[in-house]
Amino acid sequence: MMLFTSQQKQKLLFNGREENRGKDHHPVVKLFLPGTACTWLLTELDPEDPDIAFGLCDLGMGFPELGSVYLPELLELRTPFKVERDLHFDGEYSISVYARAASAVECITEDPIRLKAAALKP
Predict the structure, then answer these.
(1) CA distance 99 to 49
(2) Could you tell me which of 33, 36, 41, 107 has the fewest CB atoms within 10 Å of its CB?
(3) Burial class (CB in 10 A: 0-12, 13-18, 19+), 78
(4) Beta pairing class for 84-85 and 29-32
């Protein structure tokens, strides 16, 4: 499976443009590694190096954080499964809301109650 559709890739590249950097984008795509707690909510790609994405990264160790991820590394992971795209994910909130909710529960969550509470916090 491809990590993104062409439409998602274009949105990620648009969000990564210099004039859009630092904005509180909604996640465009959710990637995950089946059989693990590894999850990535990506908001942008670096237009100068589209192998580098930015978003909320959770390696399943209780410390989700905003940062960059090198996409070829995700594709080269040696597990029985390959990284997949969540076909049903729709980033309803900005990445900062997902980050606050993830910090509260120590993992990326899509729990609507947790996300709504995180959205109400400044």
Answers:
(1) 24
(2) 36
(3) exposed
(4) antiparallel
